[in-house]
Amino acid sequence: MRIRLLALATALLMLVACSSPSKSSTKTINVSIDEVLQQNVITRDITLAVSDTLKLTLGANHSTPYRWTADPKIGDGTILRQGSHEYFHGDTDRVGAPGTEVWTFTALRPGETTIVASYGPIVGDAAPSCTFTANVTVH
Length: 139
Prior knowledge:
Oligomer: single chain
GO molecular function: cysteine-type endopeptidase inhibitor activity
Helix content: 10-25%
Organism: Mycobacterium vicinigordonae
Shape: elongated
CATH class: Mainly Beta
Strand content: over 45%
CATH architecture: Sandwich
Number of strands: 9
Keywords: Protease inhibitor, Signal, Thiol protease inhibitor
Distance between the termini: 45 Å
Number of domains: 1
C-alpha cells in the first residue's frame, strides 16, 4: 500500500510539473549604426510566444540631428505592446560616438503584426534616411 501511495504521489507531482506554464523569454533584434547609415530599408523577421519580450536595438547617434521615431508604429496593438524606450551612449568617451536606441515589446496574443520605425532628421520635413520594419509572428 505504501508503494502505491508513493507511486501515485510521484505521478501527481510529475503531472503538475509538466502542466506548469512555460517561462517567457526575451528575444533580441540588433541593427548596427553601420547598417542604419548604409541601408535605406532594413527588415527583420522574428517569431515570439505569447508573453515573450522582444528587445529591439537600433544603432543611433544623438550627437547628430537624426533620431528614430520614439514610438514606432505597431500594426496591430492587440498582438504586441510597446514597453520601454531608451537611448544608450556608446561605450567610449569619444565625443560624437554613436550609441543605440532600445525598445521593449511584449507579445500579447497569437497573430502577425509589424513594427515600423523611421530614422530621420528631427528638424524640417525631409524624408527619413532609413526605415526599419520587424515582421512579428506570435504563436
